[in-house]
């Protein structure tokens, strides 16, 4: 009985996120990005990009909530796939909290073996591992130039962050959060 209640609540929460939140954000983002013949100010495009990032998160996490809720109805406990990534203070933290199952699979089956093979050149191995893993992640989403660019951008963000951490450079938390949201929104 407890799992049934938890499952129904999770399903309803997912439906709420999808229908009430994500679908209403889509109305705004589609108005901005769907129109080809109107001129928009940069601030409008920036704001719509941020809303699109939130919309994408709400869509994916809503479907995950629904799947987790259905599984719970049958007493199956699935792993969480999103852990509030939009609160992340860095791009690497963001990727530890979103698409968790895909990122863990890519890390275990692609990134770690590649960096192990290149262990004689650790810095280059890590950078090459990051770049190729995110290019693969982009292509996993679809064989399309936009997904390739998305993978390249996220690989560049993470590589830059890796070098900054190695150099001891850390951003204050509010700046880290803002830059993370802006970079992720730009790549979306």
What does this structure look like?
The chain is mainly α and 188 residues long. 78% of the residues lie in helices and 0% in strands. The chain is built from 7 helices and no strands. Helix 1 packs antiparallel against helix 2, helix 4 runs antiparallel to helix 5 and helix 5 runs antiparallel to helix 6.
Short characterization:
The protein has 188 residues and is mostly helical.
Stretches where pLDDT is under 50 for at least 5 consecutive residues are none
Helix content: over 70%
Give the beta-strand count.
0
Structural class call reads mainly alpha
- Average pLDDT taken over every residue: 92
The span between the termini is 41 Å
Order of helices and strands: HHHHHHH
Strand content: under 5%
Largest sheet: none
Shape: globular
Rounded radius of gyration (Å): 19 Å
Helix segment count? Answer: 7
């Amino acid at each position: 009985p407890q799992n049934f209640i938890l499952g129904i609540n999770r399903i309803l929460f997912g439906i709420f996120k999808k229908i009430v939140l994500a679908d209403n954000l889509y109305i705004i983002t589609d108005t901005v990005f769907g129109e080809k013949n109107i001129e928009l100010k940069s601030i409008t495009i920036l704001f719509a990009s941020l809303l699109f990032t939130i919309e994408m998160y709400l869509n994916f996490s809503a479907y995950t909530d629904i799947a987790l809720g259905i599984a719970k109805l049958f007493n199956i406990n699935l792993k969480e796939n999103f852990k509030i990534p939009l609160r992340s203070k860095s791009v690497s933290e963001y990727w530890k909290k979103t698409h968790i199952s895909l990122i863990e699979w890519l890390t275990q089956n692609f990134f770690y073996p590649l960096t192990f093979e290149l262990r004689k050149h650790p810095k280059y191995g890590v950078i090459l591992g990051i770049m190729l893993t995110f290019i693969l992640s982009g292509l996993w989403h679809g064989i399309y130039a936009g997904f390739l660019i998305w993978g390249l951008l996220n690989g560049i963000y993470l590589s830059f962050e890796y070098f900054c951490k190695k150099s001891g450079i850390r951003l204050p938390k509010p700046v880290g959060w803002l830059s993370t949201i802006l970079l992720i929104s730009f790549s979306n």
